[in-house]
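Predict the 3D structure for this chain.
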Amino acid sequence: MRDRQGLVAALAALLLVLSGCAAIPTEGETGVIDVVDRPERVQSEIEPEGPVEGADPNAIVRGFLAAGAGYSDDFAVARSFLTEDFSNEWDPQSSVVVMPSSADFDTITAEVSSDQQNISMSLPVAATLDAQRVYREERPGSEVDRAFSLRQVNGEWRISSAPQGLVLTSSSFTSVYDSYPLYYYTPGFDYLVPDTRWFVRSPAAATEVMTELLAGPADHVGGSVISAVPDGTRLDPRSVTVSGGIAQVGLDETAQGLDEETNGRILGQVSATLRGLSSTNAVEVTTPTGALNAPPGDSVPVGVRIDARPVLIAGGTLARLDETRLDPIPGLPDLGDDPTDPAVSIDDSTYAYLAEGKTELHRILPDGEGDAVIHTDEDGLTGPSFDLHGSIWTASRVQGDTGRVTVILASGDTVDVAVPWLGDRTVQALRVSSDGTQLAVLSRNGGGTPRIDVVGIVRSADGDPTGIVPAAPLRVGARFDQIVDLSWAGSGELAILAAESRSGDAQPYLAPVSGPTTSLGDVSGGSSITASTDARSVRVSTEDGELYSFGADNWQKVVDLVVHDPAYPG
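Done. Predicted structure below.
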């Protein structure tokens, strides 16, 4: 284990005091942006053992797999188990298989051919990293087959053929890899949106992060977010250097000769992306004609800030939650029968809810201006979700052969958005991210197996939804056999109520988009969950009307309240 954080943290603290600013500077060195508020990261490196003299093929294969946890010198120890020719062909980072925490290489059964030149094994899989470095959880019981060919080199067995990529235990994965959000813009360049990827914790991380940023967004959000960097731009020079806390990023001629506003957007995008690196305090971006200039003005925010208090159902009407007490919302008309699933717009002006056994969608315009039924479905509707443009999203709980969701625009017009992979599924809930770029859908198949899918939203120039990204959605929380509810918790992760078995008591979790889920502790009987920006905002209600808030890593019951379905704006 190596801890390199002390000196870096001290330097970062000093630079933070001196700079005191996270926006694009209007004075000082051209093309430099201060980067602050980085999360602390602990770097560690596993030092595996190389091949033992006289080891048999079975030991060589297991040693090779275990050595994948050592990334120093371009995985030199793992390559020492390979023949010279195959070592030159092997690409360790083309993909990653992550095994469950209960699995290790010593307990996996292998089949060895009679001549010992071929070994095959089935490996349990908890998650994978794909070619875009996106983390994908897999269903429990998933396996992947691995086949290895060996031959003797100077009397020692070496691997001459094997699948590309790494196989890591779950503990090794978190030691070798770390997540970094790449940032892209919402259409219109109003907000930055995280696109989380995973990279080896090495000195080359800055270069690899920038290479992926220039390659464009991940498939499941491609078309819903945009980059300020022109298509085809490459690093020039081919590596990002970090010296004295300043990351120096060189872009080729594709990015030169742009207007000042575009230059500023490129600087903001690159700076936001590289702030995740613990060694970086500032960013300088250059092209062959010189440093990019940043125009005066405020920097673009990361995500949409949600400051408003949640709304909820209390006594058959809407109310605001103010810490531990309720505030009535003045001027509201009478609600429909059996109101549930309230929602409030991002700008905190318009309300929506379901009534009549979840078959009617109601909308209340600003200042309590009327309570209108804007959509009905006899099969029942999912709870409404507002997007950044004031549109309300819902879906029929029972889907036909062709899946779709319904969007009621702020104008009152209705748009049907085709979601083909929802066909023949039952939809339990859907939520639009606060920045309006992504749709998260909780549904279940005919056998009752739930799944959460996240996919990008495609919009017209006016901001109206026209469809979803055609690529396959990203599945989140795949290890759960029961999922009760979900909510966005910021722009890059979901808060969910879930259990690993159908008979279990659903508990709150944070489920990053491209990342492993983490438990938030125990809350018995949870039926509804909501969040705004992070774990500290999470609220859970139960069927009995109890309300719990999360803070300081524990849950607190809000006493003397009987409420249902809390919901932050969105």
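Helices lie at 5-19, 57-67, 72-79, 84-89, 170-176, 205-215, 260-274.
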